[in-house]
Every structure is written in structure tokens, then in C-alpha cells.
Amino acid sequence: MDQIGAMKAFVRVVQTGSFSAAAREQSSTQATISKKVAALESLLGAKLLTRSSRELSLTEVGAVYFENCVAIIAELDEAQAQVRSQQASPKGILRVAAPVVFGCQFIAPILGEFLIRYPEIKVDLMLSDKHVDLVAEGVDLAIRAKQLEDSSLVARHLFDNPLITVASPEYLKRFTQPKEPQELRAHNCIVYSMLKSVNIWHFEQAKGGGDKISVPVGGNCRCDNGEAILQLALDGVGIAQLPTWMVDKHINQGKLQRMMPNYLSHPLPFNAIYPQSRYVPLKVRCFIDYLKQCLAEEPCYY
Q1: Closest to 291 (Cα-Cα) out of 115, 193, 158, 95
Q2: By residue range, what is the domain housing residue 44?
């Protein structure tokens, strides 16, 4: 029995949520993957997975074993990567998770050139505004618009992008334009529901020297996607706080108007996040370096 192969199959079954998905990924069959997991259970003398017609779930013992398998496989991958980096170009599947808008506007346009530059890398780009567990879901690298909160992860800073408070001319025809942050309390504000402090917007005076201002805001609509919030603002639903790169074009076209130019919101940090390890896989390092290089060529992102 190939125990390491069986462990890898087990891990991918858990991470993908099904035997068939793991089989497709490994160019195998569902029956073969099922036999590997069954052989592993037989070797251990313990049931790892509870199977039903609709879903799989880890047993208590299986959950502990899964975490150990992930750690062991990571160590093996690290050892192999160290050897390969000394004599070969980066290769393998690179799983990248990113917010939807960032992925569409920043990553997708530069991905073609990256794949040409590194022909032995295959990119699995996963776009979602939901929080991704890198280890559990087998993700090599995630782009997050927030400060690092997990000490088991490493963050490489990409850029800081200030948020701009905007509204459409149509909205401002119906309501008095706010001049001070506290006036936002009386307005319909469209909030991004994925932030930790959803209904709190933070400001400081543009010229500096003033106190930081935190304003509780609210309205009749909240959303977990920046592109949708942008569209709602363009449609005159309310006031939104969005990154510069999302709204600059619409401001220049007169479709949106910046509110309170004398006040700046706190910059939104964009970081590349990856699991902490003694050795960072070459494919991960190459992608981060390439992404930073491309962003540096676009000064509007800083």
C-alpha cells in the first residue's frame, strides 16, 4: 500500500468535499480514490469519514488525522520544493484565492503573461469574497484586503489603497451632500458586510493633525461584494466607501462624486497571504514577485 498516496487522496477528498472531485483532480476514478481511503481506514483500524448520499463529514478521529496528514504532506512538499528550486524552474498547480473584483481587475489581466513566463505552472484561480481557510482548502496563496490576523500565516504587503466615500449625482439631488463625517448618520449608506466592523466608517483629516473619527453608518442595503456595491452607488441607492481603483473612472466620467474631500478614510491594505513554513514554494514566490512588479507599474494603485 502506498500510504503517502492514500493520505494525499484522503486530504483532497476532505478539501474538495467529494471522492469524484478528488478523482478528477488526480486523473483517477472515484472507485480508486475510495479504495485508497478505505485501505487507509483499514490500516489505522478507524473510520475517518462518514458517508451519506449527499455529503461527507469527518469523524472525530478523522478530523485529528486530517490535520496531521496536512502537516506531513506539507513537510514532504517543502522538502521536494527545496530540491527542485536548486535545479529547476517553478512548476506545479498554484492555487490562488482572491476577492472577486481584485481578481478580475488585477490578476486576470496579467495572468496570461505569467503563464507564458512560467510554462510549468498551472494556476487554479478561485475568486470569492468569502474567507478562505488556506490549509483546509489546499490554497497556496490568498489575496486579502485586511491586516493579518492569523499568526500561522505570513503576509507580504502588496499596496495600500485608500477608500473614497462616493455617491451618484442622482442621489445628491435628493439629499443634502454631507460636509462632515458625522453627517453620514443621516444618510443611506451601503455597507460592505464582509468587514469585521461592518457599520463603522473611519476618517481622519486630509491635512493631518486631527483626531481620527469613527462614524456608525447604516442604510437599507448591505452587500458582500464590492462590484455590486459600486453598481448600487451608481444607481443612486446611497453613499458607498470603495477603493480608489474601483471608482476613479466613474468619478472622471461624472457618474460618481467624491464626498468630503477634506477627510481621508483609512487605507485598505492588500496583502498576499500564505501558510507559514520554513521554505516558501518557488511557485508562490514567483507569483508574488510578479504581482508586485505589475502593481508597481500602475502608480494609481498606490
Answers
A1: 158
A2: 3-85
